[in-house]
Amino acid sequence: MVVLIAHVIIKSDCVAEYLRLANDMLIPSRAEEPCITYDFFTKPEDPTKLVFVEEWTTREGLEEHFNYPHFIQFKADTDPLVESAELNIYAVSSKE
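Structure (tokenized):
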């Protein structure tokens, strides 16, 4: 299993648009066969800060996700709205 944790800081005047686009990603991403979990959360004290939490069956499945048209479009639409982003990918060998 692979876990992706992404920390995103959105430009303050772009939060509503980014959230709309991120919400639009939930259904198609969750429908991908290798997807176990696909969620994002806003920080209550600062709505410009989001955390994506994703679980994928394999690294290859995650890489496939990055090549799907809905992800490519999401990235193109949201890149101008983002102040900064940090992506962390973890290989998980067991789950308790």
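Strands lie at 2-10, 35-43, 46-56, 82-91. The chain has a mean pLDDT of 96.
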